[in-house]
Amino acid sequence: MAHNKPSLTRQRSIRAILLGLLLPAALVFMGAAWLVHGALLDRMARTFVEDRLAQEAQFLEQQLRDSSIEGKPTLSAGRYFEEVFHHAHAIRYGQQQTISPATWQPALEPLLEDAADGFIDKQISSGLQAGPTHFLAYRSTVDINGQRAIILVAEDLTALHHGQQELHIWTAVVSGGLLLMLGAVIFLAVTLALRSVRNMQQELAALQHGQRLRLSDEAASEFRPLTGQINELLDTLDQRLERSRLAVANLSHSVKTPIAAVKQLLTDYQRPLDLAMREQMADRLADITRQLETEMSRSRFAGPQIGKAACPVLQARDLLWTLGRLHPDKHFELDTKLDSEQTWGIEEQDLGEILGNLLDNAGKWARFQALLNLAIVPGAGGTSDALRIQVSDDGPGVEARERSGLGTRGLRLDEQTPGHGLGLAIVQEIVARYSGSITFDVSHAGGLKVLVVLPGTIGK
Questions:
Q1: Phi, psi torsion values for 386, nearest 5 degrees
Q2: Which of 3.40.50.1820, 3.30.70.3040, 3.30.565.10, 3.90.180.10 would CATH assign to domain 312-459?
Q3: pLDDT tens digits, residue range 435-458?
Q4: For 352-392, what is each residue's pLDDT tens digit?
Q5: How is the chain split into domains, by residue range?
């Protein structure tokens, strides 16, 4: 029992794909920016605090040195430092020591006893009542008038961290708002970008319901090649429909008179249906048959179809084999360097009509031999390559003054040879549909040489 297999790939719209890619990318970008902002904020805040602590320690050192110029240095500068700056500080000079504010004494006094100079990041358990729990200090040991002085300047980082967190939270809020705005902008941009697709869908629906004839050429530049190809396809279909209608009208007009003549003969009960009357009826029916064949041939003159291709070498070999059976006294040859699998942008039926009519015509007029040559000729001046079909025979040929009339529908240069004068006309009409060319000349053997050039595309 056959089971329908579920589709392995889920069809998604272009809008869903774009939004599914752009919105997560925007979210990742904003998240990364928020994290980088937090890291930079921490780094800048710490650098700023370190610079201030180092500068204030130098300022306090300078105050101590200035107070020792005229006498014994005192720590009165410490009170001035406390009034001017908001950082905690500790100074030990000789036997003198001062720590301000007093709540910092349990935190700073151990650093005066045993610590290395430089920046000290210290965290203390909650044993202190009013002291800091996390602070950054700068310790400097200097020599003033031969005595050792230790200077400590510290800042409570708890308040700074609270401020950073608040700023970081507000940054997150602003980033969230920007992300929403960015999402709205992305959605609007995708919607506006896909407006051309929506307009094309509406135009196709209107085209399907007969409300318009062609697609607009005002679409986005990315879709103009597509709309142009669709319009060209519609033009081709209209041309084919017009030719079909014309063929039906011609056929109706052409067979009306022979049918009327036959009907008149059959309904004339006053005259017997003798041999002469039978011959007249047969002639009229033959006219109808020829007209039907002609219009059937015309219905196939539709030109190239998109995606259609033929193998010239393979078709030529089949035709040469068939014609060799129809004309056993003639020798048909194929001269080509093309690969058997090489294709050309032409319908197989049209290529068969061209090759069949040219080779059949050469077989009728040739004395002993008919030659078919297939080749690809490069285009000149940037034009595309072309398929060259050359058929020549060793027959009597055609006079120069009569070659211009070759291909005229119904024209026969020799009434003794079987045919209706349509073969070359059919070839000429098909070649014209493909924007090709056909020329008539004298072959090397003195017969007729027909050269057909069909522009197009070659494939493998």
A1: -140, 150
A2: 3.30.565.10
A3: 888 888 888 888 888 999 988 755
A4: 888 888 888 888 888 889 999 999 888 765 567 889 999 99
A5: 19-162, 224-298, 312-459
Mean pLDDT on 301-306: 48
Averaged pLDDT for residues 317-328: 81
Tokens matching residue 342: 């090489």
Amino acid at 225: P
Alpha helices, DSSP H, located in 68-132:
76-84, 105-113
User: What is the CA 378 to chain-centroid distance, rounded?
Assistant: 29
Does residue 101 have a cis peptide bond before it, meaning omega lies within 30 degrees of 0?
yes
Q: Residue 122 corresponds to which tokens in the numbers above?
A: 């210290």
* Tokens linked to 296: 């059937």
Q: What is the mean pLDDT of residues 54-71?
A: 77
- In the block, tokens 């180092």 appear at 54
- Mean pLDDT is highest, among 203-217, 227-241, 425-439, for 425-439
Q: Encoding tokens for residue 171?
A: 């940054």
The percent helix, strand, coil of the chain (3-state, each to 5) is 55, 15, 30
Contact 200, 224 (CB under 8 A): no
* Conformational region of residue 380, where left means phi above 0, alpha means psi within -120 to 50, and beta covers everything else: beta
Q: What's the CA gap between 231 and 226, in Å, rounded?
A: 9
